Every structure is written in C-alpha cells, then in structure tokens.
Amino acid sequence: MYATNYHRASSITDAVKQQSSSDEAKYVSGGMTLIPTMKQRLAAPSDLVDLRHIAEMKGISVNGSRVRIGAGTTHAEVATSAELKAACPAICHLASHIGDPHVRHMGTIGGSIANNDPAADYPSAMLALGATIVTNAREIPTDDFFTGLFETALEEGEIIVAVTFDAPARAAYSKFPNPASRYAMAGVFVAKRADGGVRVAVTGAGSNGVFRHAGLEDALAANWSADAAAGVDVDASDLLSDIHGSAEYRANLVKVMAKRAVAAA
Amino acid sequence: MAKVAMTVNGRKVSKECEDRTLLVHFIRDNLSLTGTHVGCDTSQCGACVVHMDGKAVKSCSILAAQAAGSDILTIEGLAANGELHPVQAAFKANHGLQCGFCTPGMVMTAVDMINRYGAQLDEKTVRENLEGNICRCTGYHNIVKAILAAAEDMGAAGRQAAE
C-alpha cells in the first residue's frame, strides 16, 4: 500500500471539509473494497476520511411503509434488523449473503452503493425498489444514480447519507454467486409495489453494470409467476462475457434467477 | 506517523505507526502478538480474524488507524487462567486442525458465531459462517464438529441469540 493520511470525521460537515482539503482524498467507511484495492496499489488516495464514526449516518427506521437505512449501516445490521425483516425481508436476505460474516461486520450499504461494483448486490435492490439516494446535498432517484461500471451520479466530495424506499408488497433477491469470490454472476431483484407496478433489476450480468429489465417487468406485471419470467427473452448482447461465463450463459442465469426470485417473493 | 491507541485483550496499548499500517501488522509487529496470522493477503482466507468491539473482522483489511479507540480481542486473549477457551479445547479434542495456520482465525470466527447464534447454531449455519475462512488441510469436517461441540459445551441452549 502506498502511504496515505488518515482522518476520522466526526460529522458529515467535518467529513466534507476534510475531503475538500486534499485533491486526492477518498472517503472510507467499512473499507471492505477500498482497503484491499489500496493494498494492491490499484488505488492510492493521499488521504482517507473515515465516515464510520458519524452517528447521523447510522441506523434503520421504518415509518409506515417508508424505510430509511443510514448509509453507515453495516450489512450485518441490515441482515438482522427486526424492523426491516417485517417491512422488506428481501433486503435482509440480500445483505445476509454479501461476502462473508467478517466482511458483513464492516461493509456498509452506503459504501456498496457509492462504489457501484457491477457485481455488487445492493445496487440491484436500490434500482428494483425505486429507492431514493439521499446525499448531503440532494436526493437522487436511483434511476439516475447508477451511471456505469463503478460510476454514479455522485459529485466529487458528495456523501451518501441514507437510502429511502417504500416497502414493496412483495420482493425477493436471488443470485448465482461465483463459487470463489461470492460476487454475483447474475443477481436478480424483483419487487412488486402495492399498486401492482413491478420493477426488476439485474446485477453481475450487465456489461455496463446494474440495469432494469423491461421484458421481465412487463411479463411479471401482467402475470406475477415464475412461468411468466420463463417466457421472457433475455438478450445476451449487452451482457458480460468473461472467464466465469459467456454472455449467453449469463442470459440464461438471469432468467433462472428471476424465476427463483419470483417463486421466493 | 501517528500514535494509535486501542485496547487489546483487555490491555490499553499505544504505539507509533504509519497511517497505512494494517491492523494485523500493528498486532503482530507493534504488539508482538503473532497468533493472528497473515494468510492470503487478499482478504479471503480469514487467518487474520480478530474481534473488534465484539465482532469478528479481517484485520488484514482494516487500518490500525481505523481501529483506534476500539476494543480488540485476539487469539492470545481467549484462554483464561492457563485454561484453554472451550472453543480451543474443542478444536484440540475433535482434531479440528492439522497444520494449524488457519486455526487462530477459525477459532475467533467460531467464538463469534457461537456468540451470535447460541442455541440456533446447527451444522448448516456453521458451514455458512465459515465462508470467510479457508483451511487447506482438514476438509472442514472436524472444524465443524469442534464448533458444534464447543457451542454445546458453552451451554448454547442457555445463551441468548445476539442481535
């Protein structure tokens, strides 16, 4: 790892101030992606501003159907929250399958979303739930948030403070993890709103990161069943091909994961 | 360089280190507690697992500076009064180790999962919770056996499932 300077932020205002005092500063929360990346010298921020001790970024609250998860909430906390289990068990299930127990004790929802790894789990949940990404400056609808591989709408220095969404009527997440890394080779989050609207988001498979699948959404809005998903044509042309699987293989995985998710919802 | 202070195995420590120093190196090099191992250096193997504020974490993926002010428990802090911790004793009794390199991380992971699951700990849960720990000798069977035996020894039935 190259040398870096560590700063611990006490508040969001303090974090922004510390970040802006250096050109090459990065925020770190759980650090479960950033620290290993720095160890490999693939990232070399001059300064790290630690967000892990900022109280206003932590915690889960459910008011009626509105769910708010602080960006600094760990995967383990999301996985085991009784309030969330009652409102949206799908997101608890998703969080309980990220990485391993040790990673889940450190990694945070805000960090995962801000990093937007094309094989990360949370971006698919945010997109399918139609979540709002709340930052220190504004509220961003998820449809505008994930802009490409490791790219988001976040401006330099902007911090995700929380995510909010309406609890869905039904939802589930199903992923096919890479057997070694546990990252999704294809992960599908399906969500049906109380008004019948359906959103389906796919992670791990898209060559440009997480995306919504219109064909699956239309089919499931008309008929919420695994059979309906089975009849959808999943185009392989925009999907990833790598040593782990071809685009055609992933296209089939997307369909199978969608079927499993609908069956589990 | 900065002074980093934390509590390790109940003892307050304070040492100078670079900001880029990993917690595992702080523990091994600055505190000379070499029970915590560096296995893969790519965050996969879990040989470096310690508890930070009561939760199992990978000390190779955390800076010492990030851990400043926290309460750290390493493998050296488990045995009390010269007696092996029940998990250590169970690993010994069930032949849950061969070369022993992964063992500190396995034991710390086992203690963490017994703390969290208590009576609900079954074989499937144990195997799922070993996802972050790699052993290249045992084939895991005896590790799982040891953890289940330890959970029973520790009166898992009477423990509250945490969180």
TrEMBL record, chain A:
Residues 1-170 form the FAD-binding PCMH-type domain. PANTHER family: XANTHINE DEHYDROGENASE SUBUNIT C-RELATED. The keyword Oxidoreductase applies. Pfam families: FAD_binding_5. The keyword Flavoprotein applies. This is Xanthine dehydrogenase family protein subunit M. InterPro entries: CO_DH_flav_C, CO_DH_flav_C_dom_sf, Diverse_Substr_Oxidored, FAD-bd_PCMH, FAD-bd_PCMH-like_sf, FAD-bd_PCMH_sub1, FAD-bd_PCMH_sub2, Mopterin_DH_FAD-bd. Keywords: FAD, Flavoprotein, Oxidoreductase.
Automatic annotation (TrEMBL), chain B:
This is (2Fe-2S)-binding protein. Gene3D superfamilies: 3.10.20.30, [2Fe-2S]-binding domain. Keywords: 2Fe-2S, Iron, Iron-sulfur, Metal-binding, Oxidoreductase. It holds the Pfam family Fer2. Residues 2-78 form the 2Fe-2S ferredoxin-type domain. InterPro entries: 2Fe-2S-bd (IPR002888), 2Fe-2S-bd_dom_sf (IPR036884), 2Fe-2S_ferredoxin-like_sf (IPR036010), 2Fe-2S_ferredoxin-type (IPR001041), Beta-grasp_dom_sf (IPR012675), Diverse_Oxidoreductases (IPR051452). It comes from the Bacteria. Coiled coil: none annotated. The keyword Lipid metabolism does not apply.
